[in-house]
Specification:
ten-stranded mixed beta sheet; two-stranded antiparallel ribbon; globular; 11 helices; alpha/beta
Length: 327
Amino acid sequence: MAFPIQRLRRLRETEPLRRMVRETSLTPNDFIYPVFVTEGQGRREPIVSMPGQSRLSIDLLVKEAHEVKALGIPAMILFGIPDRKDERGSSGFDPEGIVQRAIRAVKAQVPDLVLITDVCIDEYTSHGHCGIVRDGKILNDETLDCLRTMAKTHAQAGADMVAPSDMMDGRVAAIRDELDCAGFVDIPIMAYAAKFASCFYAPFRDAANSSPQFGDRQSYQMDPANKREALREIDLDIEEGADIIMVKPAMPYLDIISAARERTLLPIAAYQVSGEYSMIKAAAQAGWLDERRAMLESLLSIKRAGAEIILTYFAKEAARLLQSRPA
């Protein structure tokens, strides 16, 4: 009777053996926790399309920051929900805007938590687009002035890192120049380098009330069909001074993450976006899958593809579960 010489199951026999030869692992250090901050006091508004997530007023955001740090998660990224919007998104680059005040409050109470800010005007514009609009056209270069000012006011408020998500051409170079001229040479930029025009953003747009009031975002966000163009975008952001590059969404674009990992030595982030999160939550609530296993498997796939950093709404849940497991 012939027997196989290579028996790969030998190293799968017991749980300690499986841990010993495991190639990829997750820790809370891998995560960035996205949060929505809104006006008011003592205000927690559950987001129906994102079970377990809420819009938080600044006082409750500070409490959230304490919890995030206690779980060993190193960073949060802030998304502002303003009380006023206009054509230019001016509340987004107001030094007394919602995010700027939130940064100061959190840094005063939880100084060791890394605070990252989203640099984009879509949450602050009355039309919901990521750029200045004229005659129905999204203007690239005029938008850069808004992004410059927004990034600078975030840094002045105490942000540790800025993350432009608008997908305007040249925005990384413009922000780097603005930060350097203002004396913030040590503030890193995490660029949303390959951000695809995805349907998976829908729950986020509900949370931030930022859906476009006309048209769509396909003239500036990337065509989901294009891999080579994504790598060109990544190359350009690196040339312009990005310190970390990001792929968004994560799971539908694991091939992009993997290709980027082969291409650059920079740290790679991936955003497990609202739709990815909500799909798992909804399927689990329907009893169709095990939420904890699906959560960890999805996060593991993102890291295995090559991302060192994962922005995920599961950050707190995953950190608690990982801390309770054997090292």
